[in-house]
Amino acid sequence: MLQIFIRPREQYLSPNVQFFDRKITRDGAWNLLAGPENTASPLTIREATYLYNAHFDKQTKTTLPNLMGYRPWLYVMEGKLKVNGQKLTKGEAVTGDSVELERVKAYPGTTLVLLLTDLQAKMTYAGNFSGIKRFEYVAE
Fold first, then answer.
1. Could you point out which of 48, 75, 81, 82 has its C-alpha 20 to 30 Å from the C-alpha of 100?
2. Do residues 40 and 52 touch, judged by C-beta distance below 8 A?
3. Hey, CA dihedral for 79, 57, 71, 140, is it positive or negative?
4. According to the model, what pLDDT value does residue 129 have?
5. Whole-number Cα distances in Å, 136 to 46, 48, 123
6. So what's the pLDDT on residue 17?
7. Of 79 and 102, which is predicted with more confidence?
8. 23-31: Cβ within 8 A, 24+ apart
9. Which DSSP string corresponds to 93-131?
10. In this prediction, what percent of the chain has a pLDDT beyond 90?
11. Rounded mean pLDDT of 64-86?
């Protein structure tokens, strides 16, 4: 299980629970699961972040989706892969620019999760994180 907390662009947004039923294919195609408001993604993230996944049933060389100004964070949900010669297995992640992550080889039975995030986008530290509030952060 992977649990991701993404800080919203601003505080005091109304809660919004979303569900998305879909058929899982193991063809190695990148599936857009969520993205910023007013995009073609099936689920909405109230931040400049896109969420993708891909499932591989055979050894495949793949290219990550790339958006100008967005930083990739690639997580191995299941299986294993190589990124520029570096081996990664279940539970490991890597980040870098599009050149550093351009050579990705996934092995059979691998599921990958990819976040593309604009690190310069507006966001807030206000509010609770994971239900525990230890510090009061307010972004200016």
1. 48
2. no
3. negative
4. 60
5. 21, 23, 15
6. 84
7. 79
8. 24/55, 25/55, 26/55, 26/56, 26/57, 27/55, 27/57, 28/54, 28/55, 28/56, 28/57, 28/58, 28/60, 28/62, 28/106, 29/54, 30/54, 30/62, 30/64, 30/65, 30/114
9. EEE--TTTTS-EEEPTTEEEEEEEE-TTS-----S-BTT
10. 61
11. 94
Mean residue pLDDT across the chain? 87
Three-class DSSP category at 92: coil
Rg (CA), the chain: 16
Beta bridge partners of 43: 34
- Going by C-beta distance under 8 Å and a sequence separation of 6 or more, which residues neighbour residue 45? 6, 34, 35, 36, 51
Q: What is the dihedral of CA 2, 75, 134, 123, to 10 degrees?
A: -110
Could you report how far apart the first and last alpha carbons of the chain are, in Å?
A: 34
Q: What is the mean pLDDT of residues 103-110?
A: 95
User: Is the pLDDT at 50 greater than 80, yes or no?
Assistant: yes
Tell me the average pLDDT across 39-65: 95
Q: pTM for the full model? A: 0.85
